[in-house]
Design brief:
- The complex is a heterodimer of chains A (403) and B (220).
- Chain A is an alpha+beta fold and 403 residues long.
- Chain A has 14 helices and eleven strands.
- In chain A, 53% of the residues lie in helices and 16% in strands.
- In chain A, the strands form three sheets. In chain A, strands 5-4-8-9-7 form a five-stranded mixed β-sheet.
- Chain A starts with a helix and ends with a helix.
- With 220 residues, chain B is an alpha/beta fold.
- In chain B, the strands form two sheets. In chain B, strands 6-7-8-3-9 form a five-stranded parallel β-sheet, sandwiched between helices.
- In chain B, a hairpin with a 2-residue loop joins β4 and β5.
- In chain B, α4 packs parallel to α6.
- Classes of the chains: A alpha+beta (403), B alpha/beta (220).
- Chains A and B meet through α1, α2 and α11 of A and α3 and α4 of B.
Chain lengths: 403, 220
């Protein structure tokens, strides 16, 4: 049998005459633009929602420090009761809760700087070690060695360097320099029994808004200097650290608002930035959806026009024994190929434009999200739009048969 | 396979209210209690223009359903047939050459024929060429149908209609634009082809009718 005999090229020859190249190009171009905007918005959203920071991720976006709101002047310590902690634990957005342990003894730190003695009463806190991703070196305490590592908030260093040192005529210091400064910690309990230990600042956290010491040290010291009478308050921490489940974190703010719980430190700002980024990517995505919907509208209109224009031919083909489904399959193939081209080109455009924002996002510790959701979204888009088109083609042809 | 096509009191909707007129009362098909086309029949339906010949063929071919009464294929009411069933009937049981032929002017003679033959795979290219040669249009195989005369188009239409198996072949004024020689050739080919499948031939005409051997004449 000769080749053309079995092929369906005659039908192609017949049907393709009515396909307007202008309309098709218009659809392809507008939909590539629309879908690219959607995908760019989505990729940007994914990137701005994805933290790259591994180091110092203590209190990064996945963590929040919570404390209760203090009204007026409170002499009663504001703390979380056991029931409140249990209730927090049961919230869907809470992955893990850690309690801040505060010192129940007084701490006096003294520094000897070239003959200038400097000493101050301090406070310190600790959180369970699980809440550190990367712990500074020597982040442990051994009573035998008697060395206490301390982690400071970066804000404190900034306050000293820019707020205090300059007007007082004191030298400004870098993180490295301050780490090398030997500190003497004098701990004393309520019965004025006191001992002195060597200490040093081993790390700075941009998000940890406290003076932190290892949990092992805190437990040991509270026991040794805390005494019976204060020990009872141990179970009521005033600050909590919570690892949050980002997926359901939108509920978190509402819950905290209702229970008068505050989020400490720059965590909230961080959240604001990422919320702002997410909101702007949402706007971009919405624009893309709008453009894409218009483009899809053009395609649907083109299909209607095409089928209308070809109506007579289609009727003739049906009289020759071609079923609406068979005839439809020619149009369905065209639509599928066109949508596939649109999807692939838009995906390529999105991925090649991604570098435009990755640099800037990296500076604030975001970006590098997986492209898997992007590809899935493209596939879902392709299936949905092609499905819609196929549905329209079949319904129109069925109507043609009946008329 | 379809062995008989029965018309029971069939009347086009446009003739509603005209049941008592001379035209309908004298008709051997419209509004009769039962009219049967048997497989193997040879019938020439004669009627003046506007009597509903083409409508009748469209009703039988499932192309229109604006009629009252019933059309039965082996006792089954065609109104209940699904789209798939009709497509099957149109490729295997009933062939129709419409009066206006419904060729695609933008395709060549061969493309027009093979668009049907691709579907059925009934004839070889050589057989198709044989038909074209007998009808004197073999040199037109690659010419666009839109450029052919009506008479030439009519011959292309006949050949295309033959490119499928059938139990009945309906030809609506197939030779209206043909001279007697070509009419005779068309008649021979149709009788040969239908005879090979023991199919019924139903041809309509206003004047120039298909020259079948001993046909039954029916007036509409």
């Amino acid at each position: 049998m000769i080749k053309w005999f079995k092929s369906d090229k005659n039908i192609w020859t017949l049907l393709k005459r009515n396909i307007s190249k202008g309309q098709m190009t218009g659809y392809i171009l507008s939909n590539i633009i629309g879908l690219s905007v959607v995908l760019i918005g989505l990729m940007f959203y994914l990137d701005s929602n994805h933290s790259t920071e591994k180091e110092d991720s203590f209190f990064s976006q996945d963590f929040m420090v919570l404390s209760k709101r203090v009204d007026g002047i409170g002499f009663e310590p504001v703390s979380f009761s056991e029931e409140e902690i249990e209730e927090l634990k049961s919230q869907p957005w809470v992955k893990k809760i850690g309690q801040f342990t505060s010192s129940q003894f007084s701490v006096k730190a003294s520094i000897d700087m070239g003959g200038h003695g400097l000493s101050s009463y301090l406070f310190c806190e600790s959180v369970p070690d699980d809440f550190f991703d990367v712990r500074p070196r020597d982040w442990d305490f051994d009573p035998q060695e008697g060395f206490v590592p301390i982690m400071l908030s970066k804000d404190y260093l900034m306050l000293y360097n820019f707020g205090f040192a300059i007007p007082q005529g004191l030298p400004q210091v870098s993180e490295n320099v301050i780490g090398a400064v030997p500190i003497r910690l004098t701990l004393s309990g309520p019965d004025h029994f006191s001992e002195t230990y060597d200490a040093a600042i081993v790390g700075f956290s941009s998000r940890l808004n406290t003076i932190a010491v290892p949990q092992s040290f805190m437990d040991w010291a509270n026991q040794r200097y805390g005494g019976e009478d204060i020990g009872g308050e141990e179970s009521n921490p005033s600050r909590l650290i919570v690892e949050i489940d980002r997926l359901s974190s939108s509920d978190a703010h509402k819950y905290l608002e209702e229970h008068e719980i505050e989020i400490a430190g720059d965590k909230a700002n961080d959240g604001n930035i990422s919320r702002f980024l997410r909101a702007s990517s949402l706007m971009v995505t919405l624009n893309g959806v709008l453009i894409s919907s218009l483009a899809v509208f053009i395609l649907v209109l083109s299909i209607f026009l095409l089928l209308q224009k070809s109506k007579e031919k289609l009727r003739y083909l049906m009289l020759l024994g071609y079923s609406p489904a068979e005839i439809g399959s020619y149009y369905e193939r065209i639509v599928a190929v066109v949508n596939l081209i649109v999807a692939i080109v838009a995906l390529i455009i999105t991925l090649s434009l991604r570098h435009l924002w990755t640099g800037q996002l990296k500076e604030i510790g975001l970006g590098d999200a997986s492209v898997f959701p992007l590809i899935s979204a493209t596939i879902v888009y392709f299936i949905l739009i092609t499905g819609l088109n196929v549905l329209i083609i079949r319904r129109t042809l069925k109507k043609d048969w009946q008329n | 396979m379809i062995n008989e096509i029965t018309l029971k009191q069939v009347l086009p909707c446009v003739f509603k209210g005209m049941e008592d007129t001379e035209r309908i009362r004298t008709s051997q098909i419209w509004e009769v209690p039962s009219f049967v086309f048997n497989k193997g029949c040879k019938i020439c339906i004669q009627a003046e223009s506007g009597c509903g010949k083409s409508s009748l063929l469209s009703f039988i071919f499932g192309n229109r359903s604006d009629y009252s009464g019933q059309i039965l294929f082996d006792g089954k009411d065609v109104r209940r047939f699904s789209v798939e069933r009709w497509c099957d009937i149109r490729t295997r049981n009933i062939a129709l050459l419409p009066q206006e032929m419904r060729l695609f002017p933008e395709l060549t003679v061969m493309q027009n024929i093979s668009i049907k033959n691709d579907k059925t795979g009934f004839k070889t290219e050589a057989e198709i060429m044989g038909f074209l040669e007998r009808l004197g249009i073999a040199d037109k195989r690659d010419a666009l149908v839109g450029k052919l005369s009506i008479g030439q188009q009519q011959r292309v239409g006949v050949i295309r209609t033959l490119c499928q198996p059938y139990d009945f072949i309906f030809l609506d004024e197939p030779v209206s634009h043909l001279d007697e020689t070509n009419n005779r050739i068309v008649s021979e080919i149709v009788e040969e082809e239908a005879g090979r499948q023991s199919a019924g031939i139903i041809s309509t005409s206003v004047g120039n009718h298909l020259l079948l051997t001993s046909p039954q004449f029916v007036s509409l």
